[in-house]
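quick q for whoever's on today - can somebody do inverse folding on this one?? i tried earlier but teh output was garbage lol. tokens:
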């Protein structure tokens, strides 16, 4: 299977309301003004501190970014006469600004809040330090604007390892995943899996908001895993550590029987360990995937069973 032709998507913008919704608890955000502008688009995964713009220098003003106001900016505005501050803010508001975020629970001037209300520019306030606000917003936006794609498959967590199961329709992906869930593992998504590369260059699988935790089982129909097995058997996202492709057993194909060969596939620029598991009557694919997940965890801990066995075998052959 090749992943080079997968359509890669990036969000062109997100609404300020999404920032508030996702970061409200983490940053203790509250809205001070500009409620009507919560739909304003954020176009870039970076922020700006408008100190130079407040001083009257508007060349190269990064107006398309979220503007963070800290002690320096707020106290500087307090030193300006009202007429000067009015002029400076008018110049600032001649640009399309997505939103202002204040740190340290600072109190802006009424003039600033009035202008933001008139122009529908949201003003959010956090109790966190300026550095904390900047860091957390940048990290959040980096994730929001990260590349993503979708694949037909099943994603689940098995012994703490994120497994993405792929294969042709009817090969048994959903049935295998259902058995794994029944054995105590957690389903992330079935049929249509959203994949996203994080800011740390790691691959994540996420639940499709339309399908959620439903599965299509041939002969039974649509089942709701969360309702049947409980909320402890589902999760909304996971880091993908292992890519497993199921395929019908082919007599003419040489399958790996030692585990010494380590293959990988690249998805969204991230290399993921890759296994091909042949399917035929009598093979319990769920147990095989469990063993593959545990074997992956051993390798992560620096233990490579196949290599250890190979070394012992070569040592015995050398002695003989």
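ok took a stab at it. sequence:
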């Amino acid at each position: 299977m090749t992943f080079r032709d997968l359509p890669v998507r990036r969000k062109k913008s997100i609404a300020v309301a999404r920032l508030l919704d996702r970061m409200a608890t983490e940053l203790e955000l509250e809205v001070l003004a500009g409620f009507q502008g919560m739909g304003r688009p954020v176009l870039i995964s970076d922020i700006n501190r408008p100190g130079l713009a407040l001083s009257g220098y508007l060349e190269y003003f990064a107006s398309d970014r979220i503007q963070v106001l800290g002690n320096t900016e707020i106290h500087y505005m307090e030193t300006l006469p009202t007429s000067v501050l009015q002029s400076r803010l008018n110049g600032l508001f001649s640009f399309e600004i997505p939103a202002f975020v204040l740190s340290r629970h600072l109190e802006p001037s009424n003039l600033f809040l009035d202008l933001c209300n008139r122009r529908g520019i949201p003003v959010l306030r956090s109790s966190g330090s300026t550095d904390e606000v900047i860091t957390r917003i940048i990290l959040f936006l980096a994730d929001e604007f990260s590349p993503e794609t979708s694949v037909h498959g099943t994603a689940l967590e098995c012994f703490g390892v994120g497994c993405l199961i792929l294969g042709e329709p009817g090969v048994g992906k959903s049935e295998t995943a259902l058995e794994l869930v029944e054995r105590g593992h957690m389903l992330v998504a079935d049929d249509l899996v959203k994949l996203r590369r994080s800011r740390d260059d790691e691959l994540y699988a996420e639940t499709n908001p339309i399908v959620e935790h439903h599965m299509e089982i041939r002969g039974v129909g649509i089942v709701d895993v969360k309702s049947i097995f409980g909320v402890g058997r589902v999760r909304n996202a996971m880091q993908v550590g292992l890519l497993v492709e199921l395929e019908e057993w082919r007599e003419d194909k040489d399958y790996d029987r030692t585990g010494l060969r380590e293959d990988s596939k690249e998805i969204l620029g991230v290399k993921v360990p890759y296994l091909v598991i042949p399917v035929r009557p009598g093979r319990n694919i769920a147990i095989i995937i469990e063993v593959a997940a545990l074997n992956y965890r051993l390798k992560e801990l620096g233990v490579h069973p196949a290599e250890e066995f190979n070394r012992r075998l070569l040592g015995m052959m050398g002695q003989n």
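fwiw The chain has a mean pLDDT of 91. also The first helix runs from residue 16 to 27. so keep that in mind when u check it
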